[in-house]
Amino acid sequence: MSPSRAFLPGFMILTLLSGSTIGMAKIVTTLYAIDLGATPLQLGVIGAMESLGMLLLTLPAGVFIARYGARRVYFLASLGPMLLNLAIPLFSGWVWLAMFRLLIGLCIPFRMVAMSSAFLDRLRHIGNAKAGWYRAALTLGMGLLGPLLGSGLSAQVGFAGCFATIGMCFGAMAFSSLGFWRDAAPKPAAAGSASGASLWALLNDRVVSQSCLVEMLCGATHALFSTFIILLAITRAGVSQPWAASLLMVQGAALVVVLLGLGRAVQRLGTRSTYLFAMVSALAALLLLGLGSGYSVYALGAVLLSVAMALLHLLNMAQLGAQPMDKGRIGGLFNLAGLLGSCASALLGGAVAQRLGIANVFLAWIAPLVLAGGFGWLRHLRAAPGLQAMEH
Q1: With contact defined as beta carbons under 8 Å apart, do 225 and 289 qualify?
Q2: How far is the C-alpha of 94 from the C-alpha of 96, rounded, in Å?
Q3: What positions belong to coiled-coil segments (predicted)?
Q4: Labelling 309: which of 53, 247, 300, 370 has CA 20 to 30 A away?
């Protein structure tokens, strides 16, 4: 078995466990915050705190991994969330919950950059048809298995039991990673990943900057959906808490199907057509979520949103995987772009929801999405021949 094929099964299992744990933590945190009586603005702050913590250390994470190795860094970065999740039930109040999410967010980038850069580095050997497999495994856990486990466990063992389970999962990942990362070796080239010159060189590359812009928009849109859809479904549509939580599973399942099944189709469709189809799908989803009411309408909006994000991710991964630059630096910047979008949209969305209502959060996002998407489209039309070659 080739090294790339031997790498893929263990990598996918670890990614699936990681995604399930993160998804379980996200929905349990949301349900716990609602149980504490958090307002929409407070929900937005709580949702943004983890992204803020990740935002602060995503670029420096590449330097640490280059210096100390992925195996040691991933292990220590998994122990932090383990201990913090065990401590959450000991404190009450939304402020404490937000602070714990911030501290957990400070640990996540070291895990995230190690995983994404490893996948990007091997993508040319794995093949672009599997460009969505990493995100698919992560999403299967975050969007389907995690919410399912979190919703079921919260009803059976309470919030304290849920956070204890989440903590033990992080501990399991910490110790299992010692075997998975055994052959991983740090790359000297990644040591300069945080320097201003390196970042400017990356941002000057049309493919990298375009992919980062798209990832920022996807991160922002996904954060709005995952932060506010449960409360919207409960308050506007009157659905029960478990059914509201299942909308996250619908979105996750649709995302996984597209990521796993349409890799080759996107290659044949071409960049321009895929971008256009994704934008139309995203706008239709936001209109349904903002104007509609009822579980079936919200579920359709979730599916359309997933289609848009999955198509764009498949394009991004194929383009970035073909870049000759160091994948650790590209992975760090790519993840940073998604985090910027997630953090900003959760905070601003909370403020909009507090003043204008939760449904208007999705309608208010249409104008910025169209403007940013139009800017990205104009940049694509002027892109280098290497990017346009994907059309053929």
Answers
A1: yes
A2: 5
A3: none
A4: 53
Highest mean pLDDT among 119-133, 141-155, 272-286, 340-354: 272-286
Round to whole Å and give the CA distance between 104 and 254: 28
Q: What is the arithmetic mean of pLDDT over 364-369? A: 89
Q: What residues make up the domain containing 126?
A: 3-181+194-391
Residue 184 phi, psi dihedral angles, 5° rounding: -70, 140
Establish if 189 belongs to a structural domain.
Answer: no
Provide the domain count of the chain.
1
Which helix (H) or strand (E) segment holds residue 56: the answer is helix 40-68
CA angle 46, 48, 53 (to 5 degrees): 105
- Residue 159 has, within 13 A of its CA and on its CB side, a CA count of 19
Q: Are the C-beta atoms of residues 146 and 22 closer than 8 Å to each other?
A: yes
pLDDT higher than 50, residue 390? no
Give the confidence band of 379 by pLDDT, cuts at 50, 70, 90: low
Closest by CA position to 311, among listed 341, 363, 343, 272: 272
pTM of the model: 0.70
CATH number of the domain residue 26 falls in: 1.20.1250.20
Using a pLDDT cut of 90, give the percent of the chain over it. Answer: 21
Task: Give the list of residues 6+ apart from residue 268 with CB closer than 8 angstroms, or none.
Answer: none
CA dist 138 and 133 (Å) reads 8
Kindly tell me the sign of the dihedral angle through the C-alpha atoms of 157, 160, 163, 167.
Answer: negative
DSSP state of 129: G
Distance CA 51, CA 66 (A): 23
Structural domain includes residue 8 = yes
CA distance 148 to 258: 20
Tokens 């949209």 belong to: 345
CB-based contacts of 315: which residues, under 8 Å, 6+ apart?
211, 214, 266, 271, 274, 275, 390
Query: CA 281, CA 329: separation in Å to the nearest integer?
Result: 31
Any domain includes 187: no
Q: What does the pLDDT read at residue 91? A: 87
